[in-house]
Amino acid sequence: MPNRPTEAPPLPAVAFVYQGVRVSIDENRLINLTEMWEAAGRPPNRDPSQWRRKEGARFVHDLASSLNMPVGHIFSTRRGRGGATWGHWQVSLAYAAYLSPAFHRFVNEAFREWAEEVSDPGLKVARAVEAYRRRGRDDGWIADRIEGIGQRKALVAAMADHNCRKVDAVNPFAEATRAISLLVLGATPSELRESRGLPRSARTRDHLDRHELARLRFAESEAERLIKLTRAIGNDECVACCRRAGTAVRQAIDSLDP
């Protein structure tokens, strides 16, 4: 049987979206401060490193002391491709105030909603439904989208349980997504965004129709089942299961075409 990993799957989630820019939260619950700076419009001389050296220095030190943690656990910069500066949620609030009053208010509200959703998880679903309705989506599409989100999380969890790991530029979770999308829909998420004139920050699945959502959900469900059934271990075997599921769904679709 697969060995359960000791950490959460290393796939950054989205903490919030501001002016079309996604701000990530990682598996250690640190917020991407570099993306916060980008979301705020890249104000000059206010990037995370500048803040850390100046106004933020005492705050970071005091917070680390109060939490009895090394500074590196609440504020860290990761080098290399896709490098960024990450901070504890309290650090991110202080940094948001440094960027602008409007941005600070927005982040405060986002974190307030987080706290409410922890105590009442149904609120998150209700808010998502209302947000999609404001965009003109009907209840059928919304139900498909929410079910798809649940299935996507189930697939990621299954891959993590079967020892999938993100290492440097190798991201099996993203590779599985690309493989299934390419096989089932004929294009990767980035290609779909480009062909439909969507910005890079757009959530591709928010712009798919019900049939496309259903096909992806079915492929991801079968991929999850295959990973468990075959006892796949590691990145290559799990991604291979995703490709196999995507191929089967594509063949089923083609068999129904007139």
Automatic annotation (TrEMBL):
SMART domains: KilA-N
Domain KilA-N, chain residue ranges per copy: 12-114
Residues making up the signal peptide according to the UniProt record: none
Protein name: KilA-N domain protein
Lineage: Bacteria, Pseudomonadati, Planctomycetota, Planctomycetia, Isosphaerales
